[in-house]
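Box S1 | Example of a co-folding query
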Amino acid sequence: MANRNKQQLFDHYRKSAAVAGMSHPEGSLTCPLCWEPASFDTLSVEHIIPGSVGGNRIVLTCTTCNNTHGSLYDSHLSQFQKTKDGFNGQGTLPVILEVLGKRVTANIEWGDGFKNINIVGEASNPAEVAAMQADAEAGRFGELNLTINYGYIKNRFQTGLLRCAYLSLYKCFGYEYACTEIVQVLRRRICDMNQETPRLGSFIGAFRNGAVPYSDPYFIVPGNVNGVQFFMVAIRLKKQTESYHFVYMPAPCDRSDEFFEMMERCPRDNDGATLTIPHQLVFT
Ligand SMILES: [Zn+2]
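Box S1 (continued) | Returned holo structure for zinc ion
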């Protein structure tokens, strides 16, 4: 089954590459991420949105990108949603607990109106645990300081979302979309974490109210502001709970070189509070 999927995707993207005017040696394909040629054997099936956060659609990437991006980005998407779950009362949040100068590692359960704090003995200094117990037994109470370990890095998390959005558009529109210069700027941004532009915060954000009229892991809405065309890719991250995020992506057009400038100008309008998603013209 997996091999049949892989062969079907391979044949599909070979045709897509031909339509885009790209030439490939027989039996190979350009990896949509690193843009290097890869033979059939070195290509692997990759989730557009990681399976750990509810993704189920697939594309082909080279094995190197598949392996490295898992830990570089996918784990940060997963950890983000795990933290969200914790805040929504599902599962625990890892914290550093500090009382009267003693520090231990703990897990907290964030419930409705209560918090359970469990000290993780094996992750803490035994002397600090004992000293904290001695304080409690002697009735010495102090202010409780909690430092929550979110466990994800914002830049990696946002790059992970950008990668999901890029691959979803590649899935939909193939190489004709991916090979355009404006889109290549973003592809290079995904593959090189040292790049600081374009600034991810200007076109990536979260839907604050969470209600989205679709149940797909992602969907794509085309839009246009003053003649500059774009796609909004909505991405669902799902573990015990769900969160929705958006990534604005350029749509190749005469004025697409204005896209990043436009994104820098209007992030304040994209606060997710009043965005209306049209029911027509949605691609998944
Ligand atoms: Zn690659």
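The chain is about 35% helix and 25% strand. The first strand starts at residue 28 and ends at 30.
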